[in-house]
Design a protein that fits this description.
about 450 residues; alpha/beta; eight-stranded parallel β-barrel; 15 helices; 10 strands; binds NADP nicotinamide-adenine-dinucleotide phosphate; oxidoreductase; AKR1C
Length: about 450
């Protein structure tokens, strides 16, 4: 199994290799952290050697413990494992990039990681909050130049804290910015992006290939709708009839076909599962091959549809105010605009960097809400807060009960009076007609 896995590795532009199949570890918040530790141990036993995580996932302690246990019981050596972590946007200031990595290393009980990625292109205000927000609930971005952040990444590689460095959620323009940086020491080895048959990233893949940058696919199985970040009510990839027909033809599962599709395009595929059976199933992706016709049919499923939101919940309705976020959407192919991003704000944000002489616009250049918008939002928030604060107070409960009581009395009175009127009308009708007859 081990040698088979090594065989299915790709060489990166810095000479290191990366296993083509990786285990994703980002789970919905309701999954207990102890499950991560169990899953990693199980995955290593099955044969997985590539593990993907990030500071954001807050599971590096559990992952580190599991890997150390598997090293201690002789199943693997540290060098057999390919481990990826990512620097979150609140650590994009050059002096913080290494701090983020050192924190991860401490939790992992490791002296180096194999791959360190910029998690996304947007810099966020530095601090302990993953999603720093202002009083109106809008996310606070930072104005750090991506190129200076990249220089700090290069320093981490030079210091031996990571073997390779790369990016995630970057579009072609953002990649070009790094590639054209004067004095560039190391190119990104990869770009990790959402990629599956419904969003196949063919243009970005072509661009990356032309620059010897690998594409690493996440949400290859359509992600998990229980996650906060995942847009609900989208068609489920694994239920797609074409994908299912191809799977049936090969006597495989739709998940295996979705993963195999990526491998045959030269894309590194991540798949998250904490379930032993499904982990095994996903690992059997090297045992069959899709025909060129199958690949063509799967290419035909592309509809530029994203499952994941950009910095969700953090800044509903405001995310596109950051020019790098708009760029990210282009990076996802001609991705559909998600519900929380209006076309107008995207357009504004696209125009803004063109108007700005600086490559990285200051906060003042970012689209600010108008006074009227601010006022509206403030009233909405305070009304919601008031309702939340008072809804469970005893006097409010009593008031609600009193209101309900009054409503019941009014209703019964109305019904009774209607009956009464109806009967009165009926009786007078009878007496008139009987008199007439009589
Ligand atoms: P995913 O791997 O596409 O899908 C995970 C979901 O599919 C889970 O609900 C899993 O459930 C289920 N699943 C796994 N194998 C299956 C099978 N054989 N049949 C049916 N269902 C199966 O989604 P993801 O977790 O969003 O993405 C993968 C990884 O990429 C993440 O874990 C993370 O490491 C990385 N990622 C990176 C970024 C970034 O911004 N760079 C963003 C998102 C994700 P069970 O666990 O119950 O099996």
């Amino acid at each position: 199994m081990m040698s088979q896995m090594r065989h299915f590795s790709l060489k990166m532009n810095d000479g290191h290799t990366i296993p083509m199949l990786g285990l994703g570890t980002s789970a919905p918040s309701q999954v207990p952290k102890s499950e991560t530790e169990m899953a990693i141990k199980r995955a290593i036993d099955i044969g997985y050697r590539h593990i993907d995580s990030a500071h954001l996932y807050q599971n590096e302690e559990e992952i580190g413990r599991a890997i150390q246990m598997k090293i201690a019981d002789g199943t693997v050596k540290r060098d057999d494992i390919f481990y990826t972590t990512k620097v979150w946007g609140t650590f994009f200031r050059p002096e913080l990039v290494q701090t983020n990595l050192e924190r991860s290393l401490k939790k992992l009980q490791m002296s180096y990681v194999d791959l360190y990625l910029l998690h996304h292109p947007e810099a966020l205000q530095a601090g302990e909050d993953f999603f720093p927000k202002d009083a109106h609930g809008n996310i606070i971005f930072d104005t750090v130049d991506l190129c200076t952040t990249w220089e700090a990444m290069e320093k981490c590689k030079n210091e031996g804290l990571t073997r390779s460095i790369g990016v995630s959620n970057f579009n072609c323009k953002q990649l070009e910015r790094i590639l054209n940086k004067p004095g560039l020491k190391y190119k990104p080895v990869c770009n990790q992006v959402e990629c599956h048959p419904y969003l196949n990233q063919s243009k970005l893949l072509e661009f990356c290939r032309s620059h010897d940058i690998l594409l690493v696919a996440y949400a290859t199985l359509g992600s998990d709708a229980r996650k906060k970040w995942v847009i609900k009510n989208k068609p489920r990839l694994l239920q797609d009839p074409v994908l299912n027909a191809i799977a049936e033809k090969h006597r495989r599962t739709p998940a295996q076909v979705a993963l195999r599709y990526q491998l045959q395009r030269g894309v590194v595929a991540l798949a998250k599962s904490f379930n032993e059976q499904r982990m095994k199933e996903n690992f059997q992706v090297f045992e069959f091959e899709l025909t060129p016709e199958d690949m063509e049919s799967l290419d035909g499923l592309n509809r530029n549809m994203c499952y994941l939101q950009d910095l969700p919940q953090a800044a509903p309705g405001r995310v596109a105010s950051h020019p790098e976020t708009v760029g990210r959407m282009e990076g996802r192919g001609e991705a559909q605009l998600t519900s929380h991003v209006s076309r107008k704000s995207v357009l504004l944000a696209t125009i803004m960097p063109l108007r700005s002489t600086a490559l990285f616009p200051s906060e003042a250049n970012l689209k600010a809400p108008s006074q009227q918008e601010k006022k509206k939002q403030k009233t909405k928030i305070s009304k919601r807060k008031r309702i939340e604060r008072y809804k469970n107070k005893p006097q409010c409960i009593k008031k609600r009960e009193r209101k309900t009581g009054t409503k019941c009395i009014t209703l019964s009175a109305t019904v009774l009076s209607r009956w009464y009127l109806h009967d009165l009308f009926f009786l007078s009708y009878i007496s008139v007609t009987s008199k007439f007859r009589g």
